[in-house]
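ingest -> validate -> predict -> emit
validate: passed (alphabet ok, no gaps, 355 aa)
predict: started
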Amino acid sequence: MIEHDDSGKLTGYTPGSVIKLVRNPNWDASTDYKPAYADSVTIKEGNDADVASRQILEGDSMISGDFQLPGPILASVSQGDQKDQLILTPPTGRFRYIALNNTVKPFDDPNVRKAISAVMDRDALRKAFGGPLVGKIPTHWIPPGQPGFDEAGGDAGPGVDFLAKPTGDLNLAMEYMKKAGYSSGKYDGGETFTGVSDNATQQRRVSEVAVEQMAKLGFKVNMKYVVRDSMYTKYCQIQKEQPAVCPSVGWLKDFADPETLLDPVFNGKNILPQGNSNFSQLNEEKTNSLMDKAEVVNDPAERNKAWGEVDKAITETAPSVPWLWDTQPMLMSTNVNGVVNQANAAFDLTATSIK
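emit:
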């Protein structure tokens, strides 16, 4: 149970699966001029996403927390009588991607990474995650709505061919594999690569599609599915234990500045033994130098321009495969007036009220 403080604002909020709002029983619509804001909040975690979604849709005074709506439920609600119970946030400031460990051969070769980006049917990945309502397919890294997005090329991006077709381009991918020295256009090294994925329903579906896509180029990936905490703390964030592929990772801005999106994820100086957020382990002299210079630019327009150039340079190295710029579909019960906090693209518990 999370109580409000003396200012009336809710404190200590931690995202959960189902959030139950409790209204002050003394609130009276005829005498109280303020909406019926929540007097307390109960967060119930660990629910199956399908079960949690149905509880919210059929129950009272509930909103969704930190889970992805299952694709069938999202499609049904968005097209049916319950569409008023669905809220779509603005772009969250997060990108989701398939992390390729650039220190593992042959992923240390940019042409191999470009081939994997080219072959990847990223629209299929998005469908596995819920379809077009969950966001846009990227052409670069900085998401829409964030400083530096336009300077990095906007929706069109910098124009790299390996991110041009959302449904993938096998012929182009094979050309890149030939440039990497594979005469057949496919990987023929005989190795099976390790992968570790979040085992949550939507993330697992995405990872399964990613394995299928990589197989088009001859890559075999033995995927291990684990709980999210273990995925990060035992594997993908531990430098020496990091597998070749982490297909269900993402990065969300700390605040509205492009440095918070690119520097922690792609600067070589941020490769750490533990708690590593540079999942690609990209350590390129050119991109490192551009980031170091952009960090100290203070003028907003020049700063956005500098980080736009960083984005372009990173995109051209193809360190990993960006497949989604998030929006966040969320559910609320029929008696809830849901309000979205644009800073974190989640329900604002200080402004959401009960009808």
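Residues 94-326 form a domain with the Dipeptide-binding Protein; domain 3 fold (CATH 3.10.105.10).
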